[in-house]
Amino acid sequence: MNLAAGPVLYGVVAAPTENIAMGLLVCTGFLVGMAFGPLWAMPMESVKRSYVGMATGVMNAGGSIGGILSPIVIGYLVGMSGYNAAFVFMGGTLVFTALVVSLVKLPPKADARLATAAEN
């Protein structure tokens, strides 16, 4: 979903009207929101049950670090180059994240469980 959300977010920069830009922002939020379930399920299926709490903590820590650093980076980009640079950066980050997640390999057992769940 993030792979689709990146170009949609980039469309905000190129949107001819504010209404189209707002619609594209809503679409981006929808697409990013759709990615949350699988992004949380994959690691939980990949680690032993005794490490699920630690894996969740590491994921939350990563999100918190992003929540601290992103306003600083976006504020710097807006101050130096304007809002267009910030939106292009965010769209590029979404695409980069999607590519990194696509490289994650699930263990065979977890892969089989996810395939069975998808069939039902």
UniProtKB/TrEMBL annotation:
InterPro entries assigned: MFS, MFS_dom, MFS_trans_sf
SUPFAM superfamilies named in the record: MFS general substrate transporter
Keyword Transmembrane helix assigned: yes
The keyword Transport is annotated on this UniProt entry: yes
Ranges that cross the membrane: 20-40, 52-77, 83-104
Gene3D superfamilies for the chain: MFS general substrate transporter like domains
Segments forming domain Major facilitator superfamily (MFS) profile: 1-109
PROSITE patterns per UniProt: MFS
Main location: membrane
Location of this chain's protein in the cell: Cell membrane
Pfam families: MFS_1 (PF07690)
Membrane topology: Multi-pass membrane protein
Keywords: Membrane, Transmembrane, Transmembrane helix, Transport
Source domain of life: Bacteria
Protein's name in the database: MFS transporter
Organism (species): Pelosinus baikalensis
